[in-house]
Amino acid sequence: MLEVRGLSMHFVVRHGPLGRFQHPDHVIKAVDGVSFRVDPGGVFGIVGESGSGKTTLARTILRLCRATAGSVFYGGRSVFDMDAVALKQYRREVQPVFQDADSTLDPRQTVASVLEEPLLIHGIGAAEERRRNIEAVMAHVNLSRALLGRYPSELSGGQRQRVAMGRALLLDPRIIIADEPTSGLDPLVATQLLSLLLRLRRERGLSLVLISHDLDTVAYSADRVGVMYRGRMVEVIGGDSFREGALHPYSRVLLGLESGVAPHVLQEGVHEHEHLLEVGCPYAAYCARHLSRCHSEVPALREVWPGHMVACHAVR
Amino acid sequence: MTPLLQVRDLHVSFDTPQGVVRANAGVDLDVEEGESVGIMGESGCGKTVLFLSILGLQHPGRITKGRIRFDGQDLTGLGERELCRVRGRGIALVPQNHATALNPAYTVRDQLLEAMVVRERDGGLRNVFLRPDRVLQERHLDAMRRVFGDLGFGDERLLERLMQSYPHELSGGMRQRVLIAMALLLEPRLLIADEPTTALDRATRAQSLELLRRLNDRLTMLVVSHDLGAIATMCSRVAVMYAGRIIEQGPSVEVLSRPRHPYSRALVAAQERRRGQPLPEVYADTSDLINVPSGCPFHASCPDMAAECVDSLPPVHSCGPVSVACHLYREAS
After folding, report:
1. I want to staple B11 with a disulfide (CB 3.0 to 4.6 A). Which of A132, A155, A235, B64 is the partner?
2. CB nearest A186 (choices: B172, B226, B284)
């Protein structure tokens, strides 16, 4: 349904004339050669620490940034070659729910007008029908109609997140790309939202791309899980075997299956974390099982088991 | 021995066009010196209002009733100047939103220095922007290096770079640590951490937890969090809040493994994820702090509701090491 092939998103960091003296311009490979597929009605989970490129990946799929290389296919069509009309339809059917609901809601719009906007943009229904649609969605996300006249600042964090999710559901999308939909919410609201998404998937055959660092939630709901590390997909595995069956050394540390230093991209300075990426496996420096090859050759993602792909030289 | 912090029957309300919001409706909480206490509960249950009131920052809310004693002093009666003396050296706060808590126009070094200068001046807000003399500044910088060393920044060069950074150049985890460092530099007697781990990824979360756990031995802490794992690692005691009240309180192992109040049970169960099994049923949120229902505020959603729950507010029963505000446990006490 949605297929991502060799997608890369590189950012060039340019310094001012003085900064250039100290640091040469360099490239940050936020997303680097990522491929995966989302099946109709499937849930693809993406995990990884902050800074691993999860959010940039989502934005690139939505064509919110211009990919450096690679392609995204939706229903057999290349998203990056779509004209304005096709793109509008694509963005109707593939809806994002962003991480930070607070900043995606206009502080000067009431909930009702936030929710009406997408319907107006896509020219759906007359006023009466729009109102019915909006009320139906509010009921879906468990918000009372009394909140329609409120402004985002008058809502709690959980309510705002539910409004954002309601907005995504209004257009009856076929895929929802949810970037940390439940982070920062209390466990009751988080569970409610997750069960809403999973119910929609059952009832309407909605597909989900679920980006999260909550491993429990991803392991619970995803059919397939992709583990990202420094912009690369290092492992793709079935959701049911993810918890115990992950093979990549980084995934195993992440899951707590093996002890090890959880390496920290962010502890290294802003200007440094590129050098390590240039040659070899980005994880080699921290890896307990690294071989000499790991320092010179980037491992490719290959199938070690039907449906289970790992990018590691040390895994046979 | 009297506890370091003693909150008694605290009521805080907010006047809104819709009516009076009773954000805290009779909170009793003790924190002993050297202890760390966790507070959990859903958003909107009054956790934030509770600790803002402790710091005297509840405005525009009003403390309508109750006392907050810290170190033998009643904070509710203090004026702004005296409160400034308590904030920082007495009680320091690690705020939740690391993205907005730091000033974007200052480097990390300058913000930390500022905090220390204010502390030096005994909370006085005057002349904050006058730089201290070199000797003093050197001493402050030494203290910073020590604190950051504790926080896992042993590397001199890395630390230097961090100090010169502006907040937007740092990741969430790093900003969080800068905020922790800022609070620690003030050498407070009580540290309040608001959701120290929610916005962090797994690896950073583990690091921050480890850090706070290590500090734990030396510090008195009040930790507000939804994260059961975080509470279990850090806190010896936990209090569960609902609709502006503490409804269950006890040793964290006891409360988290065998929650007694029906609401605590729902809260703990909601975090369960068992693959192949349906998600736990979550009760519909009915808490309304304006039109507070009669009796137990949780009765409308409670699976074990009885007639008396509608009529009367349950008093606190002690049930082994745990105290529970629920009619179910009357016999136990």
Report:
1. B64
2. B226
- For the entire predicted model, the pTM comes to 0.80
Residues 6+ apart with CB under 8 A from A240: B275, B276
Report the distance separating Cα B71 and Cα B189, nearest Å. Answer: 9
Mutation pick from A22, A46, A50 vs chain B, by most beta carbons of B within 10 Å, is A50
Query: In this structure, what are the phi and psi dihedrals at residue B126, rounded to the nearest 5 degrees?
Result: -75, 150
ipTM of the complex: 0.74
Give Cβ neighbours of residue B92 (< 8 Å, ≥ 6 apart). B183, B184, B186, B188, B190, B191, B192
Distance from the Cα of A125 to chain B's closest Cα (Å) equals 31
Number of other CB atoms surrounding residue A278 within 10 Å: 11
On chain B, the residues whose CB falls within 8 A of the CB of A186 are 41-43, 226
Beta-carbon separation of B202 and A243 below 8 A: no
The DSSP annotation for A50-96 comes to TTSSHHHHHHHHTTSS--SEEEEEETTEEGGG--HHHHHHHHHHEEE
B284-293 pLDDT tens trace:
565 678 888 8
Q: SS3 of A187, please?
A: helix
Q: B60 near B14, Cβ under 8 Å? A: yes
Segments making up each domain of chain B, as ranges? 1-90+189-290, 104-187
CA-nearest residue of chain A to B277?
Answer: A220
- In sequence order, the 6+-apart residues with CB closer than 8 A to the CB of A116 are A130, A134
For domain B1-90+189-290, give the CATH superfamily.
Answer: P-loop containing nucleotide triphosphate hydrolases (3.40.50.300)
Which amino acid type is present at position A91?
Answer: R
